[in-house]
UniProtKB/TrEMBL annotation:
It comes from the Bacteria. The lineage of its organism: Bacteria, Pseudomonadati, Pseudomonadota, Gammaproteobacteria, Alteromonadales. The chain crosses the membrane at residues 129-149. InterPro entries: 6-blade_b-propeller_TolB-like, OmpR/PhoB-type_DNA-bd, Sig_transdc_resp-reg_C-effctor, WD40, WH-like_DNA-bd_sf. It comes from Shewanella subflava. Keywords: DNA-binding, Membrane, Transmembrane, Transmembrane helix. Residues 3-102 form the OmpR/PhoB-type domain. Belongs to the TolB family. Residues 3-102 bind DNA. The keyword Magnesium does not apply. Pfam families: PD40, Trans_reg_C. This is Winged helix-turn-helix domain-containing protein.
Amino acid sequence: MDVIQYQIGPCTLDCSIMTLSCGSQSVKLSAKVFELLKLFIESPDHIVSRQTAIDIIWDGNQGVGEKGFTNSVWLIRKSFKDLNIEDDLLLTLPKLGYQLVLPICAISVASQQVNIAEEPKPARILPKWIGISFGLIFVLLLGFSGYQFKLSHQQQTAQLPVSITPIKNKVTNFEGVEEHIAVSNNGNYLAMQWRSGDLLGKIYIKDLNNADSPLKLISFGEYEEASPTWSPSDEKLAYVRLSTSGDCEVRVRHLLQNTDSLIAEGCFYLPYKRVLSWSTSDENTLVFAKQLNDRVALFAYSFITQQVTPLTQPGKNEIDFAPHQLDANNGVAFIREKSSSMQMSLILQNNENQLIDILANKVTIVDFDYSVKNKVFYVNHVDAGGLAISEIDIAANLVSTITHEGLPSSISFSDIANTLYITEHISKEYIAQVAYQDQKVLRTISSSSRDMYARYLKSSADVLFLSNRSSLWSIWKNNQINSKNLTKNMGNAGVVATSPTDLSFAVTINADEKQTLFIGNTESELFESVDIGELAAENISWSKDGKALYFKGTQDDKSAIYRYSLNHHLEPIKFGQGNYAVEGETPDILYMSRFNVNGIWRFDARTNQSIQITDRLAKYDFGSFYFENGYVYFVERSKLEDKIQRINADHQVQTIMTFPANSIRKFFGISSADEASLLLTLKVANEADVTSYELPVKH
């Protein structure tokens, strides 16, 4: 059927008259702008590079095409904005070009709609490497917060009772990222961390009563600062500061006296985790996350005694963060990352030190706040593969869900204004296979969803990767023609590991509150569960001969690196606090990272001796390294750039390629491919602004 119209989001493109319309409004497009928009619609994954557009639309005329392409992209954005479509519909994809991200349907002459973006196809190989803008990580993730990358959760089957559509208003619109937001108790000010480009994150205050007011910097010095929280009187602001050596300090800024003081040292901090909270009713108590040897616990600091006392008792490899002291009668609430189950819970610890699950066993809980007036929690968490904001009462009953846009991250609620403030990100990931020698892009995998953490299958040259294209986090296979879901409807998948010798792969699947380790086959698409007893497996890799798996196993508050032979023999590796392991020169040599510690270690299983070969791998990049042909490849980060480094047996380090800072996804951002290239998970340039959601008044 001939297509004469396309539905692009809420708008309609009429190809016969080159008109874009939305409701009663319409915009006439020039010929070149129309051709470029149609090229986006018809291209795989709706991605178009500058050079491709110049070759097709401007007949390869480089001089005219360069200017024409830039102008046409601007006019496409302007046309949609003229139709009141404010969201940026064209994402800049580093090394790829631009991607049209609005949903698209073709309309035939018979007025039958066909979804043309249902099964994403791989983008064409591009002739140029386009510079990468500064990106976040969020969010992961946003949505994927957590020192350990955890991708398991209990499938939600209960129907949500109420859906609230609040009144939305833009609070900030600055270039860069506004994070760790905290509204003052009087509702007049918003404290936040703001960063842009390669600048360090600093603490700023925004006047909420003056929309045009600039951000006010409240601290100085060359330090990373984050996680602000207001005292009950709003006269002081506590925050954490990271020294150049990475040491964490809890500090308090006295806003009236304009003085700053050190409160405690040894606190815990990771980007996009809130780690500090002032009591809502007690000016003299501050709660913060403190780094211990093998866990992160919450501690309370008393301004009266100037003493620090433990508040929570996490297990080994567990992390307690995002504390909230509710009120005098209800104790403290916090998020706990539980390594033993690879899940996260929002927990209320009452005044009798009893633990109550407010929201249990979720793949990720990003942040939350508590309304003292309404006696409810507002929680940002992953649910069925997407981010949800839920209103939950103190008895752990789901009250409502709140309609939101973008990728929400930190949240803060004002009881006085009955308004929820949310940081919303524009961010996504994509996968690139890049040659070592000339950094040529050999393959890209991108969609309107999040595609990440790829592994190369040498036997078929297929790439397996993690994606939320379906309602669950699943393992997909890309064969350079199309992508297929291999774990459809099985549950939420973790990061995959591929065999170096055949078509097998290993992955953990979480379903019905149970985690199972599977070995699958990409050709037969059959799965066999692996009996590892009561162990919970994560961070999987294969031996070089394809006859064994390595993984981090946790049971009863204890964890270790294990080797599982496919002949069903399971044995622990005697390496303390092991987090991720890959086989080296021989089966007796392993390269490992440690839980919550920077660096890579070389472990000799014959002698049970280990030596640190580098301290340049950040603790949150614990899975971003591999061994290949005598070298260990790893990610090294600075405030200016991300580097792919390799280190040889003599501990000599060589830079293979560089990217702008924070371009590579944390946790498992790189992996080996065909010995002449590697796979990277890269992030689209990130922006984040604060939006307010005024909620209906409760009666």
